[in-house]
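User: Can you recover a sequence for this backbone? Please restate the input before giving your answer.

Assistant: Of course. Working from this structure:
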């Protein structure tokens, strides 16, 4: 016993006791008090969800994440302190780590926390970031991982072709952008032959447009970096010569896109309004703009006369710009500050001159915008007009989901306005910014009392506006004209696939989630009776055929939930709540179906300009400049000029000496006039539901049936809500 009374023994016993207490408190007690090993989480909607195990590819990606020591600088744990949820996303739950062996909690945050990274950025952004982090985040201290990439054998030939045939320095060889017809050398002719070749083994156009989904099939997952030799976009660009991610890198990106997504769609489809602003440059004379004549690249540079003409044009512009800067020192200083911000945050992708040819463009499926062309997809002005300053600010602030353009909302308000001013200075055309008289109008959001009639009316407008020609009858991006659509560079451009990316194999997981949503909606006892009905059991995805049927049901193509469960049974289950919930034709079960349909999808990635109703309204009204999607504002609105009092050119009127009045189109009651305003549907549907909402049938000169529709107030929102229905984006209505 005396041995136990020695200092060494006491220290040893004390250490053992402390170790035992620590083991119990830190390891055993949390295991007993939590359900860490139970793969379940509570989603952002309050519904319990199953956490599926990692797929084989995701597990391989996780192994790569561990081998590359990413966990040393990046944590994967959002704690409920210091408002971490506002910075990184919802607080971590124990069930999310059920399949994490070993854990990658991490302790250092040299880099951002990655627990909620999944779905934040597209795959090609991650590819660029892995290859060289400075391309996407200039201030990053993260090391590059070039060994996760390889060079395709033809990449060297692509680089050679670009060096010779890219005659304006934008990183693209195109039939629309190139030389001026000068007789080329034999070497140039040979490279052009390779550029236009369609032979899979030799062609240089190797990457680009993804194939569309087909009716009844799951669409390609937009979060996966998947391309085949049949996906070329018709252009040879630096993207074709860019580094290719290895299988190891593809798996790593897949793992990144899985992180934090098991709690459901926690990122709201936020609407960012367009701010108004009076530009400080509006009251000054226009600063000299650069011009295409200042550039001679590729084989044109070998022509001494053309090279000298380009250099002379550059010298003239430089001198005139310096003179303007000297006369406007305050505005010139704004451009200097904006240029510094641009170099820090934007040049890596958009290039030093804003031509969309930065180093990062070589890894990006969606090519960065060429600011010199003045083509901005998301504006409040129709196609053909430049945006307002607020439009550019909005894009900078919220980014463009589904592309590699991140949000810069962490920048101060004044910094964003400085960037707006600098980006505008890169434009090389002769149009004006901030033509507010051209801003497309909008009406307050309007709902038809009957959702079914509203969707039928929206479908009729969808066919009237020829949307079907590119987006397809079911919105799957497989319309008959899609292969012929061209981008502003002259290449093929995929129409947007509006439908959710549902896979039949996800059926059991989504079916269980749908049941838990309905249990919460009806209550446990009421749902217990409904779930025993033949309708609900008939949806169970017990085999491959039933999985496909469930997928089509979730897309809204196989009836409605209230019909499946039985209208009488639903009314009995809800009791007094039925009238209040379903009054005025509202159907809250539709929102539940649509929310589950998008469970495995990222709707925001399908609408780069925003997926909120106001965003879709603006896109439909103004069109997408640089794409075949035209402005539809004149189909719903009539514009008339209003003369202002005062002398012509009166400075008191400011720059905008014209004002316009927009009025919505509406039937006049005059049968002759209204007949002339009717619009023909793109296809003959013979759908009785469309006949009930005003679609009429007429015979053409050949005796064939044609369907027509007269536009009326509310149709603008009907087509927006129809697109949202196609995309399965739940739309909350008053009283719902």
């Amino acid at each position: 016993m005396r041995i136990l009374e020695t200092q060494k023994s006491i220290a040893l016993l004390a250490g053992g006791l402390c170790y035992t207490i620590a083991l119990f408190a830190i390891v055993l007690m949390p295991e007993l008090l939590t359900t860490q090993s139970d793969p379940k989480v509570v989603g952002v909607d309050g519904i319990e969800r199953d956490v599926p195990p990692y797929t084989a590819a995701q597990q391989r990606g996780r192994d790569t994440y561990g081998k590359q020591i990413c966990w040393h600088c990046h944590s994967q744990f959002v704690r409920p302190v210091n408002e971490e949820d506002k910075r990184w996303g919802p607080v971590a739950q124990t069930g999310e780590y059920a399949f994490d062996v070993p854990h990658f909690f991490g302790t250092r945050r040299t880099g951002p926390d990655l627990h909620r990274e999944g779905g934040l950025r597209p795959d090609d952004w991650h590819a660029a970031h892995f290859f060289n982090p400075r391309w996407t985040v200039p201030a990053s201290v993260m090391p590059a991982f070039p060994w996760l990439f390889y060079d395709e054998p033809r990449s060297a030939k692509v680089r050679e072709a670009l060096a010779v045939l890219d005659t304006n320095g934008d990183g693209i060889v195109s039939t629309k952008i190139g030389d001026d017809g000068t007789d080329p050398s034999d070497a140039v002719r040979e490279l052009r032959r390779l550029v236009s070749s369609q032979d899979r083994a030799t062609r240089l156009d190797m990457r680009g447009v993804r194939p569309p989904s087909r009716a009844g099939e799951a669409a390609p997952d937009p979060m996966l970096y998947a391309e085949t030799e049949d996906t070329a976009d018709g252009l040879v660009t630096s993207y074709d010569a860019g580094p290719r991610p290895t299988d190891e890198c593809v798996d790593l990106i897949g793992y990144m896109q899985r992180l934090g997504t098991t709690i459901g769609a926690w990122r709201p489809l936020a609407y960012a309004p367009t701010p108004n602003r009076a530009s400080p440059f509006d009251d000054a004379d226009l600063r000299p703009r650069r011009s295409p004549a200042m550039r001679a690249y590729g084989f044109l540079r070998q022509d001494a006369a053309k090279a000298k003409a380009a250099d002379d044009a550059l010298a003239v512009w430089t001198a005139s710009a310096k003179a303007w800067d000297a006369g406007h020192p305050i505005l010139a200083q704004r451009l200097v500050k904006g240029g510094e911000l641009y170099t820090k945050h934007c040049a890596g992708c958009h290039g030093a001159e804003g031509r969309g040819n930065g180093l990062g463009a070589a890894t990006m499926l969606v090519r960065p915008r060429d600011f010199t062309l003045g083509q901005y997809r998301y504006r409040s002005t129709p196609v053909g007009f430049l945006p307002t300053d607020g439009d550019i600010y909005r894009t900078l602030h919220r980014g463009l989901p589904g592309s590699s353009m991140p949000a810069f909302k962490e920048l101060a308000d004044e910094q964003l306005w400085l960037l707006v001013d600098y980006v505008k200075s890169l434009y090389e055309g002769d149009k004006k910014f901030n033509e507010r008289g051209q801003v497309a109008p909008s009406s307050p959001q309007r709902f038809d009392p009957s959702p079914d009639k509203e969707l039928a009316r929206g479908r009729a407008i969808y066919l009237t506006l020829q949307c079907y020609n590119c987006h397809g009858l079911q919105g799957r991006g497989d319309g008959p004209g899609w292969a012929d659509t061209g981008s502003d560079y002259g290449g093929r451009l995929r129409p947007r696939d509006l439908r959710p990316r549902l896979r039949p194999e996800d059926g059991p997981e989504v079916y269980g989630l749908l049941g838990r949503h309905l249990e919460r909606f009806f209550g446990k006892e009421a749902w217990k009776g409904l779930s025993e009905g033949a309708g609900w059991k008939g949806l169970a995805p017990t085999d491959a055929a039933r999985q496909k049927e469930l997928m089509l049901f979730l897309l809204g193509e196989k009836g409605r939930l209230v019909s499946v469960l039985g209208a009488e049974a639903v009314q009995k289950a809800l009791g007094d709540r039925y009238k209040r919930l379903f009054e005025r034709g509202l159907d809250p079960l539709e929102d539940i179906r649509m929310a589950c349909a998008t469970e495995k999808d990222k709707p925001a990635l399908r609408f780069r300009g925003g997926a909120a109703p106001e965003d879709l309204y603006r896109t439909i009204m103004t069109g997408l400049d640089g794409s075949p999607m035209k402005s539809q504002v004149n189909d719903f609105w009539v514009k008339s000029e209003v003369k202002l009092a005062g002398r012509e050119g009166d400075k008191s009127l400011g720059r905008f000496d014209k004002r316009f009045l927009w009025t919505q189109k509406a039937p006049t009651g005059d049968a002759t006039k209204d007949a002339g305003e009717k619009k023909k549907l793109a296809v003959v549907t013979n759908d009785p539901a469309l006949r009930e909402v005003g679609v009429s049938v007429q015979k053409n000169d050949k005796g064939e049936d044609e369907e027509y529709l007269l536009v009326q107030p509310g149709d603008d929102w009907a087509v927006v809500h129809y697109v949202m229905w196609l995309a399965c984006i739940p739309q909350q209505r008053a009283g719902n």
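That completes the design. Residues 7-33 form the longest helix (27 residues).
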